């Protein structure tokens, strides 16, 4: 049976960067690597809000990406 081992977690914050000439919203992204793999959603949310508070742009979304090694 195959197993999946969590190897890394990345956090990406999506900021509002205004409206483009085409009338569609523009976004700016900031990524953070080496996030503790044991961090809870509440902890990630709280840290993201704190980081976003340092920016003049509004926070639109918080994304978490997990990478796994799949082994047989």
Q: Could you explain the architecture of this structure?
A:
The chain has 72 residues and is an alpha+beta fold. The chain is built from 1 helix and 3 strands, in the order E-E-H-E. It has one helix at residues 41-52; strands at 3-19, 25-32, 59-71. Strands 2-1-3 form a 3-stranded antiparallel beta sheet, with helices on one face. It starts with a strand and ends with a strand. The relative contact order is 0.38.
Descriptors:
single chain, 72 residues, alpha+beta, three-stranded antiparallel beta sheet, 1 helix, 3 strands
Number of strands: 3
**SSE ordering:** EEHE
Instruction: Pick out the low-confidence regions.
Output: none
Major sheet: size, sense and barrel closure? 3 strands, antiparallel
Shape, principal axes of CA atoms = elongated
* CA-CA gap between termini: 6 Å
Short description:
The protein has 72 residues and is of the alpha+beta class. It has one helix and three strands.
